[in-house]
Amino acid sequence: MAHRMDIKYILRKQIQGKGMSIGMGPQNSINWNAPEGNKLTFPIGLGITKTVKWAKTPWKLRLEPQYSIVKPENYGARWNIRIQIAPIIKNPISKK
Q1: What is the per-residue pLDDT across 35-81, written as a single tens digit (0 to 9) for each?
Q2: How far is CA 81 from CA 12, 18, 68, in A?
Q3: Hey, where are the domains in the chain?
Q4: Inter-residue long-range contacts of 78-81, CB under 8 Å, 24+ positions, other chains counted
């Protein structure tokens, strides 16, 4: 039986004409079997995403610091940084 649940939400606002966005996408988790005070992790953050072109391939670069406003008492980081570097590829099943 599952005793853990993860919830991810994404909020982003495009910056028109700049190939950029600001927003957040934290990973919240609940461990239902953990002792009281150690069940919930709830980070918030604000980051920036920029799309750039390297060697004819567009890439998405993201940096998002996150602060856990609720975290397990016995473990877990108060701060973390989400770094993402990802190529943007053509959809292989698209008919366009």
Answers
A1: 888 888 999 999 999 999 999 899 999 999 999 998 888 777 889 99
A2: 17, 23, 11
A3: 4-87
A4: 80/43
